[in-house]
């Protein structure tokens, strides 16, 4: 039988790197003195050596203690401990260390050193705490003096600008160092809005930088006011979207940017809709992407996007989840759950949302009864559906029949589906009465954002933030900057984060596992329109690659479009091998017969028509005749055009010059000139009977009339 040694894991654990305390320090000193005295007595060591060593130790510890700026009590303890220990050692070497008197005196010495060390340690701790408290009192006194000066300054300013005498109760500096908040008491029956009306004047009087404001909001009761004074402009520079992709929830709030004091703005959309206003160039599209980023991080939100502008708002959140063939990947889920880019697809989406909401009202009655609430308990198992409708406010205000049908469905979703967890985020280009005239929007969209970007036209902030005073578009003249107001916080300045396409792809991949699935009852109610939302027939437009989209452009550049009719210009390509004469005649005859049967015969143009006449818009079979002519006619015609110089020439003159040698008709020359004008060989000048063509080497520097 064999045994295996196992380490002993019981008993005390000694930390040999730790310093000595009062007990271990006294024990170490006494045992060391006893060992030294015993060794010295046995070896005949001179007693004076021990005394010299003790003196040196006392001097060294005194110097180190003074450097540490410890108290005189600690200096005396350390020096006396060395000297007493050295004195006992010297006496013990002389008289013998193993006597009862020597050992007893050493024990008394050790107890005295330990007791004194303990009291000295407590004294040092108390002394250190007192020094810290003293420093804090000095800082507090300095801050109090600064706050008193600041309070007096603002009391005087508010009295001078607003005609209201307030009493400042407290001033709190923001942790970000970008401003402060004044808590003041109002006199008599004065209300906070009397100060809010003069916020712009207060900002100017305080000489605050651009982008900084004085925002007055209600205090703890109606006789108090809070003044948020920002002193550092945090709106000018772009703020990157946070790299934190941790899970979020509809119940805990979704971050939409930062306020002027550096705090995040959280928006709660369980029961509220949202309205985002921003003209072109204000950063509205980027802000919509930050909103979608917050939705993608939520574990209890499914996002459906309607963007009738080619789906541009939702495509960046879908494409990272498509495989090489453009089909949805099995590994990464799109950042949004459904994307509609046409009125037809949007209608399917809205109809599905209505069916889901109405079915939830019936199927989840027991669940709401158990939770004792009339609101559907939204969770990862029963997610909330957020409809993001880009320029949705314009859809509601449109008179187009298709848009009016969509608007009716949008309003129905807003009106009926709050309790069942279906809410909308609408965007608009301007804060105008046409957009905000709908009572349903004003009543339900209580989370409101206005991105100004320096735009003043159509930015009537009083329409968006009713009752708010002192808000002006000029206060946020930067892209991505504007105002935000929610039921939880008064309207104020804020800055949207900047999110890039690369970061959007990162968010899609990082949050793929967080997206919930539509609950089974809701999925059944949504029907096949929802189940087949990613079918290839409905998402083919998403799978158009860049290369495919560039190919038609390249072909269009190589072959300019011709005006109407059948374009057979390919037959003029002389680089292709020509068919045999017999085959060519047979092919031409067969082709002409088919064309005549389908379209009828096109008569030849009159050779005496005016210069400006355009080629016939019927079928043009001149390609066959061109191939039958001498290929040198084309070169000779170009030579005539070049010889005409800056004055240029026309089709009639060129055809007359070639008539004797080649027998070229005027209509053929018209076709050549038009081709040369299209590919840049020639420039067309003038109109009507004054039309002429000039070789590009003689063309004037100004713009040509085409």
In words, what does this structure look like?
- The protein has 706 residues and is of the alpha/beta class.
- The chain has four domains: 22-134, no CATH class; 164-230, no CATH class; 260-543, Rossmann fold; 560-698, no CATH class.
- The protein contains 24 helices and 18 strands.
- The longest helix has 63 residues, at 100-162.
Describe this protein with a few key phrases:
706 residues, alpha/beta, Rossmann fold, 4 domains, ten-stranded mixed sheet, four-stranded antiparallel sheet, 18 strands, 13% strand, disordered N terminus, disordered C terminus
What secondary-structure arrangement, pairings included, does this model have?
Elements (H helix, E strand, L loop, with lengths): L21 H22 L3 H21 L4 H24 L4 H63 L4 E7 L5 E7 L7 H4 L2 H7 L8 E5 L5 E7 L8 E2 L13 E6 L4 E4 L6 E4 L6 H14 L3 E6 L31 E3 L2 H21 L1 H7 L12 E6 L2 H6 L3 H16 L5 E7 L4 H4 L2 H6 L2 E5 L9 H4 L16 E6 L2 E7 L1 E2 L2 H10 L9 H7 L1 H4 L4 H4 L6 H13 L22 H19 L22 H7 L3 H12 L7 H9 L6 H14 L2 E4 L6 E4 L11
Parallel strand pairs: 5-16, 8-12, 8-13, 9-10, 9-11, 11-12
Antiparallel strand pairs: 1-2, 2-4, 3-4, 6-7, 6-15, 13-14, 14-15, 17-18
Helix pairs in contact: 1-3, 1-4, 2-3, 3-4, 8-11, 8-16, 22-23, 23-24
Low-confidence stretches: 1-9, 545-582, 598-630, 702-706
Shape: elongated
CATH topology tier name of the largest domain:
Rossmann fold
Residues in helices, as a percent range: 40-55%
Quick description:
With 706 residues, this protein is of the alpha/beta class.
């Amino acid at each position: 039988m064999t045994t295996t040694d196992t380490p002993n894991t019981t008993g005390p654990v000694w930390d040999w790197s730790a310093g000595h305390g009062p007990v271990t320090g006294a024990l170490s000193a006494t045992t060391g003195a006893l060992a030294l005295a015993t060794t010295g007595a046995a070896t005949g060591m001179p007693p004076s050596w021990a005394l010299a060593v003790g003196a040196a130790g006392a001097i060294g510890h005194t110097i180190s203690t003074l450097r540490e700026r410890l108290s005189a009590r600690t200096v005396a303890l350390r020096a006396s401990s060395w000297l007493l220990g050295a004195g006992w050692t010297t006496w013990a070497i002389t008289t013998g260390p193993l006597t009862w008197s020597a050992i007893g005196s050493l024990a008394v010495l050790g107890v005295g050193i330990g007791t004194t060390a303990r009291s000295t340690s407590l004294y040092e701790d108390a002394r250190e705490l007192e020094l810290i408290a003293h420093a804090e009192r000095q800082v507090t006194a300095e801050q109090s003096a600064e706050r008193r000066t600041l309070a007096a300054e603002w009391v005087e300013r508010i009295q001078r600008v607003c005609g209201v005498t307030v009493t400042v109760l407290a001033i709190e500096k923001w942790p970000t160092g970008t401003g402060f908040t004044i808590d003041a008491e109002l006199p008599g029956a004065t209300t906070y809005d009397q100060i809010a009306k003069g916020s712009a004047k207060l900002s100017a009087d305080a000489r605050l930088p651009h982008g900084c404001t004085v925002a007055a909001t209600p205090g703890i009761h109606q006789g108090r006011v809070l003044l948020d004074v920002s002193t550092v402009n945090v709106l000018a520079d772009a703020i990157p979207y946070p790299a934190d992709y941790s899970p979020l929830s509809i119940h805990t709030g979704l971050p939409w940017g930062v306020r002027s004091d550096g705090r995040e703005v959280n928006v709660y959309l369980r029961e509220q809709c949202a309205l985002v206003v921003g003209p072109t160039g204000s950063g509205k599209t980027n802000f919509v992407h930050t909103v979608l980023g917050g939705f993608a991080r939520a574990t209890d939100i499914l996002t459906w996007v309607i963007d009738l502008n080619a789906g541009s708002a939702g495509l960046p959140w879908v494409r990272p989840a498509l495989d090489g063939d453009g089909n949805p990947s099995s590994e990464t889920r799109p950042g949004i759950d459904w994307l509609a880019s046409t009125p037809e697809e949007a209608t399917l989406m809205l109809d599905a949302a209505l069916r889901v909401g109405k079915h939830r009202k019936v199927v989840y009655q027991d669940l709401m009864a158990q939770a004792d609430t009339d609101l559907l308990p939204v969770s990862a198992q029963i997610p909330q559906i957020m409809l993001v409708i880009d320029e949705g406010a314009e859809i509601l205000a449109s008179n187009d029949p298709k848009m009016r049908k969509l608007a009716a469905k949008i309003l129905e979703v807003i009106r009926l589906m709050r309790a069942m967890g279906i809410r909308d985020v609408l965007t608009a280009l301007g804060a105008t009465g046409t957009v905000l005239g709908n009572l349903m929007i004003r009543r339900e969209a209580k989370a409101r954002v206005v991105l100004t970007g320096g735009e003043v036209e159509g930015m009537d902030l009083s329409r968006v933030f009713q009752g708010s005073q002192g808000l002006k578009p000029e206060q946020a003249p930067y892209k991505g900057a504007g105002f935000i107001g929610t039921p939880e916080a008064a309207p104020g300045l804020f800055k949207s984060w900047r999110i890039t396409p690369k970061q959007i792809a990162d968010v899609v991949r990082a949050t793929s596992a967080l997206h919930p699935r539509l609950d089974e009852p809701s999925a059944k109610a949504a029907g096949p329109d929802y189940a087949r939302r990613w079918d290839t027939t409905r998402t083919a437009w998403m799978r158009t690659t860049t290369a495919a989209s560039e190919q038609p452009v390249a072909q269009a550049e190589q072959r300019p479009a011709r005006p109407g009719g059948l374009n057979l210009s390919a037959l003029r390509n002389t680089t292709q091998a020509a068919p045999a004469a017999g085959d060519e005649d047979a092919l031409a005859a067969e082709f002409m017969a088919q064309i005549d049967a389908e379209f009828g015969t096109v008569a030849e143009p009159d050779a005496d028509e005016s210069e400006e006449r355009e080629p016939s818009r019927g079928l043009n079979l001149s390609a066959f005749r061109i191939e039958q002519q001498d290929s040198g006619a084309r070169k000779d015609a170009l030579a005539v055009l070049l010889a005409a110089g800056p004055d240029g020439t026309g089709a009639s003159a060129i055809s007359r010059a070639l008539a004797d040698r080649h027998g070229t008709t005027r209509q053929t020359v018209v076709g050549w000139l038009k081709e040369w004008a299209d590919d840049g060989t020639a420039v067309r000048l003038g109109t009507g009977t004054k039309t002429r063509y000039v070789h590009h080497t003689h063309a004037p520097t100004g713009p040509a009339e085409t």
